[in-house]
Amino acid sequence: MNIKGNSSRGLLGTTLGFFFGFAAVALYGPTAIKFKEAMDLSPAMLGLLIAIPALSGSLLRIPFGAWVDTTGGKKPFFILMLLSLIGLGGVTLLLVTSYPDGMKGMYGLVLFFGFLSGSGIATFSVGIGQTSYWFPRKQQGFALGTFGGLGNLAPGLFSIILPVFLTYYGFISAYFAWFLFLLLGTILYGIIGVNAYYFQYRKAGLSDQEAKAKASQNGQEIFPTGGVKDSLVNSAKIKNTWALVVLYFTTFGGFIALTAWFPTYWSEFQQFAPIKAGLFTAIFSILASLMRVYGGKLADTFGGEKVALLSMFTILSTAAILSFSSNILLSILIVVLLAVGMGIANAAIFKLVPVYVPKAVGGAAGWVGGLGAFGGFALPPIMGAIAGKLGTVGYARGFIVFVILSLVNLAIIYVLINKKRNQPTITN
User: Fold this and answer.
1) 342: domain CATH number?
2) Residues 6+ apart with CB under 8 A from 221
């Protein structure tokens, strides 16, 4: 029986795939003005166009994450990357053939391709499940932190590279280049990505018990129970799944939201030039992503709940200061601390998914990753509404949203810690 791969290869495949999956959505925000001019879009229509990839990238995480529990992850992951490739390719073709004069009336089609493009972000929940099945519980924090942290580097790196590329090569050329980049990533994942041993044995024809026994001999500790529907239903019945959803809505949804919000904050409130605003946004995004890797190690050592608690205090205090600070140097320092807290919290929270929902990791990853990432779609309009009411100072006051969410999250983490004390059989 030819069993492929190991945990290192499994982690490499999912991390590369997730990193490349972000390629399809990197262009929409920075190039939105081009669509606005060509199609004469209202602010609301433009806002929907920018947000639509984040919408599909969050909602598709739920069913595709659950699908991992029946297939091991490679098939749903690859399908999501193909959908993203179709979306980005469709927009590119539309621009090549119709931009700018032929774009009138194409808004619906651009939205459709944008929705498909967001599929690349949805690979996150699939990768969480696929990675979780590869690693023993004591290494979950490191593995998931590495996957999420390095994969999440994409938005920050793209925010640095993209303005330069647009300046030298132009709008349409950028879409074509990013399409080729995503194509390369899809091919690489198809070659490198591999399912954990249990799913390979099952595919080879072994029974459930035989596959578990063989996979256990190779070091696999976590196994699924039931199909896609079972995984979603079983994980949804566990209250802690929804606690993790709320926590992740603030941390990862907040990460996506702030990556989109900071360019406006730096330029409108702190009066930074666009390139400078983009650079400081990239610093936040990249630092938060890198800290996620370190946060996974901390969660393995000290426990996910404790690390999440300390990180949430950091998010609370930094958001409170940012809400009222107008000092540039202080604000820069506080944003750095916010990135550290948010990155570590993201790793700690997903460390808890296989701990609290070990028999439906894929389903739980779908709920947590999907509804959590929805924060990236929901939070910017709320912060924008605050800015709209208060004027320039509102771009700072908008961080009050994270103060409120952090207070709710601290209460949730406190409950989780107390519950764990009464359930000593749960191990971190």
Assistant:
1) 1.20.1250.20
2) 136, 137
pLDDT value of position 157: 83
Q: Which helix (H) or strand (E) holds 253?
A: helix 239-264
Give me the number of domains the chain comprises: 1
In a domain, 2, yes or no: no
- State the SS3 of 327-391: CHHHHHHHHHHHHHHHHHHHHHHHHCHHHHCCCCHHHHHHHHHHHHHCHHHHHHHHHHHHHHHHH
Which residue would you say has higher pLDDT here, 76 or 58? 76
pLDDT score recorded for residue 19: 93
SS3 category, 176: helix
∠ at Cα 276 (150, 322), nearest 5°?
75
Task: Let me know if residue 1 belongs to a domain.
Answer: no
Per-residue pLDDT tens digits for 217-265: 988 888 887 677 777 888 888 888 999 999 999 998 898 888 878 888 8
Find out whether 373 and 247 touch, Cβ atoms under 8 Å: no
CA-CA distance, 419 to 416, in Å (whole number)? 5
CA 260/CA 164 separation, integer angstroms: 18
Q: Name the phi and psi angles at 40, rounded to 5.
A: 55, 55
- For 84-107, write each residue's pLDDT tens digit: 999 999 999 999 999 888 888 899
Residue 291 CA to residue 249 CA, distance in Å, equals 18
Closest CA to 94 of 86, 25, 161, 162: 86
pLDDT exceeds 70 at position 81: yes
- Does residue 81 contact residue 185 with C-beta atoms inside 8 Å? yes
Under a CB-based contact definition with an 8 Å cutoff, are residues 370 and 172 in contact?
no
Give the residue numbers spanning the domain of 366: 7-421
Signed CA dihedral, 154, 109, 57, 261: sign only: positive
